[in-house]
Amino acid sequence: MSAAPGWYPDPGGQAAYRYWDGRAWSAVTATTPTAAPPSGAAAPFGPPSTGVPGAVGVPGATGPAAGTGRRRAGVVGLVVGAVAVLGVVVLALVLVVRSLTASAPVDAPPPTAPATSASPCPGTQVSSSGSAVDGRGRVVSGKLSYPALGRPWSAPISDSRVPFGRDVRDQVVILETRDGRPSWEASVLIARLLAGDGFFGPQQGAMIVTSCILGRFYGDAEVKRDDRVNRSYAIDGHPGWLIESHLRYDIPDVKAKGELLIVAVVDVGGGEDGLFYASIPDTAPQLVDPARKALAQLDVG
């Protein structure tokens, strides 16, 4: 079947359209296939192939003009065929590369390291939740309490150095001064410790708090620790942990060279622990007994 008259891609290879009148190609080209048909005789370019419009020419009219058309069409056919083969090769390469890319494992980004606290021993969160001494004469912090100590012990005060502590109630006896200011003291205190503050139970809590106290209450001094007691401990059925140690140190301008350290952590319920802490320098052995009595009379309520 011959191609119908109309504009087709120029068989000469130009980026234009050439008109086919049903017998021969026109000498006129156009930039769009919707242009009006040209007037006058068609140029001897030879007919396009039958079938789909736009194909290159095949043998048609006889004579020299027809031969010229066949030679030009043959060259164009070779070029178009080569381009088609090249396109197939390129497409195959693209598909192979895409397949390899899709199946190749992709290195996952390195996991982000979890954020860490600037200090493993946070300080006290100061808060006020009721009177330090209740109507029974007991020093109270959360659910933990003990009978208030009399003179020479001070009235309960707060202490912001207690690691993980809240509502700290501290009774002290000043033992040494420097330039008219207190420099060394004995201490008995209680505080609230909330679950999630870096530990998950009384034993771990007692160990962590003890380590933090050694790093915070004695500055940069080297402190040697000799544990005398490290065991489970209970108050009215509430589980806890007790640590008693003798500390040794040599701090400039401090007469004391050691002291008794007592740390008790008790699970008081409701996701909360209570802390009892006592620090009695060796230069004040008379204060050990009041500290032990306070420990023995701890109450959870």
Q: Per the principal axes of the C-alpha atoms, what is the gross shape?
A: rod-shaped
Strand-pairing-aware structural class: alpha+beta
Report how far apart the termini are. Answer: 107 Å
pLDDT < 50 stretches: 49-76, 99-118
Strand order of the largest sheet: 6-7-11-10-9-8
Proportion in helices: 10-25%
Question: What order do the helices and strands come in, and which of them pair?
Answer:
Layout: E1 6-9, E2 17-20, E3 25-30, H1 64-103, E4 138-141, E5 144-147, E6 166-178, E7 181-194, H2 202-216, E8 224-235, E9 238-248, E10 258-269, E11 272-281, H3 288-296, E12 299-300
Quick recap of the structure?
With 301 residues, the chain is an alpha+beta fold. 21% of the residues lie in helices and 32% in strands. The chain is rod-shaped, with a radius of gyration of 49 Å.
Entry keywords:
3 helices, rod-shaped, DUF2510, 6-stranded antiparallel β-sheet, Protein Transport Mog1p, Chain A, 2 domains, membrane, transmembrane, 301 residues, alpha+beta, 3-stranded antiparallel β-sheet, single chain, DUF2510 domain-containing protein
Q: What do you see in this structure?
A:
- Helix content is 21%, strand content 32%.
- It has helices at residues 64-103, 202-216, 288-296, and strands at residues 6-9, 17-20, 25-30, 138-141, 144-147, 166-178, 181-194, 224-235, 238-248, 258-269, 272-281, 299-300.
- A hairpin with a 2-residue loop joins β8 and β9.
